[in-house]
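User: New here, any thoughts?
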Amino acid sequence: MSRSINLLISMLFILLISFFLIRLAPGDPVLLMLGDRGNDPAQYKIMMENLGLNSSVYEQFKIYLMNVLSGNFGNSIVSGKPIVIELLPRWKASFELGVIVFIFSFFSGGALGVYMAYKFNTRAEKILSSSLLIIYCIPIFWLGLILISVFSLQLNLFPVSGRVGYEFDLIPYTGFYLIDSLIGDNYENYNFYAFFSCLNHMILPILTMSIVPMVSIAKITKVSILDVLKKDYILTAKSLGMNDVNIFFKHVLRNILVPVLTISSLYLINVTVAGAILTETIFSWPGIGRFLVTSVLSRDYPVIQIVILFIGVFILIVNIILEILVKIIDPKQRVKV
């Protein structure tokens, strides 16, 4: 019961944030849309009525809440198209990139953390740890620009923007380009060339978005392993002649999965929200982050509201999934205190 109440309160809070946050920002969307015609009071009044902005804030929120509950997310002020139609392909682009970033960050960061833990206090571990700390301090937008300058402009290895080369006209069967490039007419027409083009376009955004979560996962993995290795049952296992590999898979891995999985999921949220906004803008990736930036610049109220609502719901879903996974991995978490 308490979990359901907390979920309802969280949803209400997200609805309030998504509605009021944009209205606190400076600027008038009607004047922005009308341009030179904004000086005409009649035109201004008509546009305010059409957008429903002439009502009180309370009435606007009531209408917004009823529309959301009924599944009516409205139309974009700028394009005039239904927001759902505009949002869905962009969500797929962000989700495809985010999943690969999460997988890459989790396994690469975990591997680095394991290596640093078992090489703790050695010269190699100190150099690697210091290097990761320096890389971690580089801002995402600066790192993205450095990667573009080196690997795109100078070495000409990777494209600067987009999801696939202009020579490929992919049919969006699923909206996930890596999958679409390998099925149906797309595969028959382009074989694996379209797939490698999609992958090639993703490498620099993946590297840019992966740095922060990868280093964080490496650090938490190292600390968790070092903490577990001090436990009595590890010392007992060593005294019985069990080698490090068996100790790691039988005792260490299970005990570090909960903290590592927790921090990984938290950084997945960070990557999807903050990292995606910067990275998608830098690399012109047609995802939710770039969609949000362009909507803010154009004061597209309905789009901003729904995107913020969508991100908030996504965070709630991730937290619920995380809680379930933690209870599956660690049976002790299933016991209610």
Q: What stands out?
A: The mean pLDDT is 81. DSSP finds 14 helices and no strands in the chain. Residues 85 and 251 are 49 Å apart (CA to CA).
